[in-house]
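Aim 2, interim progress: modelling of the adenosine monophosphate-bound target.
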Amino acid sequence: MSANLFSRLFDTMTEPDRLAIETAEGARISYGDLIAQSGRMANYLVSRGVKAGDRVAAQAEKSVPALVLYLAAVRAGAVYLPLNTAYTLNELDYFISDAEPALVVCDPARAEGITALAERVGARVDTLDAHGGGSLTEGAERCAAEFATVARGGDDLAAILYTSGTTGRSKGAMLSHDNLASNSLTLVDFWRFTRDDVLIHALPIYHTHGLFVASNVTLFARGAMIFLSRFDPNQVIDLMARATVLMGVPTFYTRLLQNPRLTREATRHMRLFVSGSAPLLADTHREWSARTGHAVLERYGMTETNMNTSNPYDGERVPGAVGLPLPGVAVRVTDPETGTELAPEAIGMIEVRGPNVFKGYWRMPEKTRAEFRPDGFFITGDLGKIDAKGYVHILGRGKDLVISGGFNVYPKEVESEIDAMPGVIESAVIGVTHPDFGEGVTAVVVADGNAGLTEGQVIHALDGRLAKFKMPKRVLFVNDLPRNTMGKVQKNVLRDTYAALYTKAD
Ligand code: AMP
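Predicted structure of the complex, ligand included:
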């Protein structure tokens, strides 16, 4: 059998009438429909000149046809390249010139600007709007549903996803058919997905979480997805009555907790709540358990590696930990300088190896070489530790490490202490250029408005709990931490905001 992900997903499909996707607007798409629609769209892509190995780039709002486009591109042997809907034309210029797609699909409102960029690399342009209308679906409707899925090898590329690139240029992570299929099948097993599952799909589909984890896992299991164009807590709570799984970023969980309708009764029909893409506060985990009786299952992955670790389905789901390495995935913690493996509990660089790990960065052979060890481990850039029970803990991105007076300060360590204080909702610790220390440990805190917490109180409470060199030099209060759409705190934005904190002449 061909290793094409599409073949692996659907060649064994025997129940075309089974429900695959439903939408909030009431559309119901069976597995048979999904396969037929992807066939029409694959035929259309071929008619637009897309060949095996060509990139098909898409900046499209979430809709069922946008998901069909992904399946169709993979089915045609092309490489699917989803782009964050927030990217501006200026940013798209880089992605389009770097990836040189054969076809770019975009919102009609963007077509003019994107056509100018696409022409430079000889790419054609089709449109797809938020409701699934546009030249792409019009063209596909005119095509036949039968399409012979293009044979692909396991190492051939199925997708390129650009990393968010908060430092330097975004890099295109090349993901193979084997990478995607193996990880999804592992997760189906690990999270006990079955055909009876109904997933609330409220994540964007330009990112690994919503596109691969949520969609591929459900489709491999022959479950159904309720496809929502965005996350709305009230709607999600309503749907829990007939769904079984929610996959979310931590902000989903904090926002659901703010809703008084979230109760044990409201979540009675659900069997699993998964969180990932950013750290879930231990407090959120505990509060969720107390309110609903469900322990959120936190997992850890990244664009380049798919999913690496997960808290267990049956065993202990530890608040603040990202769980155990998934079957077939090796995880180790090393000294960032020497690459020597460290003992349990020691903090260092998290490295991973397994069938889930990507093929390298698109057209960046040197960058790729620099991020892999000779024995095949990928250097994730995340700092963390493995505890005595084998659970992995993430202490932040390596680039967020604060070096103050020559000492390493792991932001998470300081954040955990601050978060545990009464009146604190959450915090982010960053390094800010400091004339004496190189970097000054700086805490940005979201406090409960009624607590009346002051900078002096926070510092006082930390005194004696943290070594002197870890103590924040300043504590600043904000209403909200800046986050991207995946719920990640944008520490680069905070660093820019407070760049002159210690150097300003006052
Ligand atoms: P992305 O490539 O956008 O999926 O981002 C991957 C990064 O998100 C990882 O390298 C981690 O820094 C972070 N991340 C993902 N899942 C978790 C988690 N459960 N806890 C903490 N950080 C996470």
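The chain has a mean pLDDT of 96. The first strand starts at residue 19 and ends at 23.
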